[in-house]
Amino acid sequence: MRQAHAILTFQTDGQGLLDVTPDIHSWLRACDIQMGTVTLFCQHTSASLLINENAAPAVRRDILRWLDMAAPEGDYYEHDSEGSDDMPAHIKSMLTGNSLTVPFADGKMLLGTWQGVYLAEHRADAHRRYVVCHAMGD
C-alpha cells in the first residue's frame, strides 16, 4: 500500500465550473501508484467539487442557473459579511459538496465517458482555490 498527497491550486475567474480533471490526472500519473482511490477535498466554504457532464457546455450553464435559483442573492440572509453573494455561495457549496472519492487506475480516474471533475466557484469574484488530493493504492 502506497499513499501520496498534494494540494493543487486553481485560479477561478468568478462564478463558474472549472474542469480540473486534467490537473488531477497529471498529479495521479506523477504519484506512480497504479491503482487505488483518490480523495479530493475542497478547502473552502464558498466553492465545491462535483462530477458531472463534460461534453455539453449547456449542462454546466443549466447547473449554474439551477444553483442560482436554489440559493438566490437577495435580502433573505442575515450573513452577508463578504457581500450579497456570500451566503448563497455557502448554500451552493453545501448542496454540491466539498469532497469526492474516485477509483483510479494507470494514472487516470475511472470516470464515465461523459464525466469530469469540476471545481465549482460560487462567488462572483475571482479566487485562488485549494484542493487537497490524497491517493492510496498499489
Automatic annotation (TrEMBL):
SUPFAM superfamilies: YjbQ-like (SSF111038). InterPro entries: UPF0047_YjbQ-like, YjbQ-like_sf. Belongs to the UPF0047 family. PANTHER family: UNCHARACTERIZED PROTEIN YJBQ-RELATED, UPF0047 PROTEIN C4A8.02C. This is YjbQ family protein. It comes from Croceibacterium salegens.
